[in-house]
Amino acid sequence: MNGKKVLFCSPLMADMAQVVTAGADIAQAKIDWEVFHDGWPNLFIRDIRGYRGYDAYFLAAFRKPADIFAQLGVIYALPRYEVGSLTIFLPFFSTGTMERIEKEGEIATAMSLARMLDAIPDGGPGFGRPRVVIYDIHALGQRFYFHNVLPRLETAIPLLLPKLDELKRNGEEAQIAFPDSGAQKRLGILFQDFEQIICTKIREGDKRIVRIKEGDPAGRHVVIIDDLVQTGGTLIECCRALRSRGAMKVSAFATHGIFPNGSWHKFIDAPESEAFDNFWLTDSCPRTAKRVDGRKPFRILSLAPLIRDSILNDNV
Q: Where are the domains of the chain?
């Protein structure tokens, strides 16, 4: 390794990559992401020989299955072009919620995606093992799905903490809530200086209703924390439960905003019982982030500063 750094990225992460490299001693590689007439990728890395010996970083977005193949093609090629090391930033591990097999015939696709990353080929002398950095993975045990690649599990919570300090300066000291015990076990340790509320789902007839299991939100600004949000139904139920118990305001933070089929619309102009004062998301899912950015109550917190610091400090 010669101490020089270069960042490669998927087309979806181009805006974030530009922020990461701006004013920093990090080269930004250019890739032609073309497509043949039959629909398969036609890829070309410009000036690839010029990055021999560089510490290479790839900013990936595996949000949809169609996104994955072309990016893996580039990732697999980089060790063969003798980069000095390779680190993949994969902010959202998209198959992370499918990590358990509870009945015969189910497929743990989280392990399948880990195997694809494990197939990164060896590089030249001194290359070492490739590394993958994931933010707020859904289940910590998924680190053991990787064998060739070294996983590093990070959190985006540092992006939220200044926002909580801002609430405190405005006289609204935050109280933290979790939608279930699993989220509290994963993330509660990061909020030891805050009072915590734990919600739970109970069955009433044919319905599953959210209730407060521990804590009192009365008169407080409660911020619900989770690693990801899909349709948002659970968060809305949590909001109702918190408001029914006297919460003054309710906000939410999720690292990964999935929102299939435009389900984020339900948070726009919601009735008072379901209204969020703020809904903070990161740009780990760039398509969603662009759609909701600037629409109240959504606020986007970019992962770029965290990724930039990791590259510059080479602490990945």
A: 5-154, 157-301
- Is 149:195 a contact under the CB 8 Å cutoff? no
Kindly report the CATH number that applies to the domain delimited by 157-301.
3.40.50.2020
Say if pTM beats, i.e. exceeds, 0.90.
yes
Provide the CA 263 distance to its chain's centre, in angstroms. Answer: 18
Beta-strand relationship, 221-229 and 207-214: unpaired
Chain centroid offset of residue 158 CA: 13
pLDDT of residue 42: 97
Q: Which long-range contacts (CB under 8 A, 24 or more apart) does 79-82 make?
A: 79/120, 79/121, 79/122, 79/123, 79/124, 79/127, 79/130, 80/121, 80/123, 81/45, 81/48, 81/49, 81/51, 81/52, 82/52, 82/53, 82/123, 82/124
Token digits of residue 316: 């990945």
Domain with residues 5-154, CATH architecture: 3-Layer(aba) Sandwich (3.40)
pLDDT band at 1 (very low <50, low <70, confident <90, very high): low
Query: Residue 306 to residues 5, 10, 103, 154, 255: CA-CA distances in angstroms?
Result: 16, 18, 39, 10, 13
pLDDT digits (tens, 9 = 90+) for 80-130: 999 999 999 999 999 998 988 889 999 999 999 999 999 999 888 889 999
Q: What's the rounded Cα separation, in Å, for the pair 127 and 233?
A: 46
Q: Rg of the chain over CA atoms, in angstroms? A: 21
Return the number of other C-beta atoms located less than 10 Å from residue 254's C-beta. Answer: 25
What's the chain's length in residues?
Answer: 316
Please report the pLDDT score of residue 124 as a whole number: 81
